[in-house]
Write a structure and sequence with these properties.
Arc Repressor Mutant, subunit A, Alpha-Beta Plaits, 6 helices
Length: 187
């Protein structure tokens, strides 16, 4: 994968997630330390889209691609004083946090350490990418959200960003579908 492709995918990840660890970037894109340093320089110093946090985390500081600016309606008349801590009726302030039910699915390759010792790194990368692509094709129609690729694992949310009454069942169907999809890769 070319540097520009990795940079583009990292920017998309940061826009979506807000932050990502350097370790996760190294695993996801199979980066060495020098390549990761080049990526950090490009994002932090050259494009000024991110900042370093404690030497371990890359944090997005650019504008969000998916969040439009809030539209505020002008006030027609002065509002009466409100009690301390109360929000006015119709306030357009969006909360920083939201309570929702999630079903979380985590999957990874069994014996991937053994597999890694048997395969050339490029071949292992191809196997893991094929595995991740097969899993994604099962997850997406069920409206699961792949939150992170963690080496040979996937962390998937059902109920985010869109909630459904049957998110738990969707997660189970996704897990069963991934087993079938990965078995098809073995042939």
């Amino acid at each position: 994968m070319e540097f520009a492709d990795i940079l583009e995918q990292t920017i998309a990840l940061l826009q979506h997630q807000g932050r990502i660890s350097y370790g996760a970037l190294k695993r996801r894109f199979a980066l060495d330390d020098a390549y990761l340093d080049d990526l950090k320089i490009e994002l932090i110093e050259a494009q000024q889209l991110a900042r370093d946090e404690n030497g371990r985390i890359l944090v997005w500081v650019g504008q969000s691609a998916s969040a439009p600016p809030p539209v505020l309606e002008p006030a027609l008349s002065p509002a009466p004083p409100m009690p301390q801590g109360a929000l006015p009726h119709g306030d357009l302030h969006t909360p920083d946090a939201e309570r929702r039910q999630l079903t979380v699915l985590f999957c990874d390759l069994v014996d991937s350490t053994v597999l890694a010792s048997q395969l050339d790194p490029e071949d292992l990368r191809d196997v893991i990418r094929a595995y991740q692509a097969a899993c994604a094709t099962v997850i997406e129609p069920l409206e699961g959200h792949i939150a992170q690729y963690l080496g040979d694992g996937l962390l998937v949310y059902f109920g985010y960003p869109q909630a459904h009454e049957d998110d738990a069942q969707r997660a189970v169907r996704a897990g069963l579908g991934m087993v079938v999809a990965v078995q098809a890769l073995n042939t």
